[in-house]
Amino acid sequence: MKIRYEFANGEISEVEVSEELGRTLAEMTHKAALRDRAETRRHVSLDKLLSLGAQIGDSNPSVEELTEQALDMAALRRAVDQLEPQQRELLRMVYEEGRSCASIAREDDVSEYAVRDRLYRIHKKLKNLLR
Predict the structure, then answer these.
(1) What are the CA-CA distances from residue 19 to residues 3, 6, 16, 29 (Å)?
(2) Residues 6+ apart with CB under 8 A from 3
(3) How does pLDDT run across 1-41, given as a tens digit for each residue?
(4) Which residues of 67-88 are buried (b: 16+ CB within 10 A; e: fewer)?
(5) Domain annotation for the chain: domains and CATH numbers
(6) Could you give the C-alpha distances from 123 to 2, 26, 56, 131, in angstroms and in order?
(7) In a 3-state reduction of DSSP, which class is residue 17?
């Protein structure tokens, strides 16, 4: 099996390797691509934020905007206070500690899907409480 490699300077090289090594390399490349995809979907680009109307820079918010933000935060705190203790703990781990669903799932010995489903239900409940 031949493996093709393109160097940063544009030079291309092909190397003959065993089938087993070729399959292993292909599998590693595939897993790396999946990891990269998973990581990039968790981030939002600056261009995307700007296209959605986000204002970035040293603009000074008005008193009305600050008041509205404070009221929104107070409403969110009241809604979070109405959650079950384990739901609040999951929110704390994800949003304050920045932990991934996978690490929480390993710690709790459950599937990652179970953790994601819990978060989905929490978000849905908060949305209903904030209406």
Answers:
(1) 10, 20, 9, 15
(2) 14, 15, 17, 22, 25
(3) 888 877 788 888 888 888 888 888 888 888 887 877 766 55
(4) eeeeeeeeeeeebbeebeeebe
(5) 2-40 (no CATH), 60-129 (1.10.10.10)
(6) 49, 38, 26, 13
(7) coil
Give the model confidence (pLDDT) of 59-93 as tens digits: 677 778 778 878 888 888 889 999 999 999 999 99
Structure tokens at 101: 């669903």
User: CB of 12 within 8 A of CB of 4?
Assistant: yes
Tokens of 71: 């009221």
- Residue reference for tokens 């979907």: 41
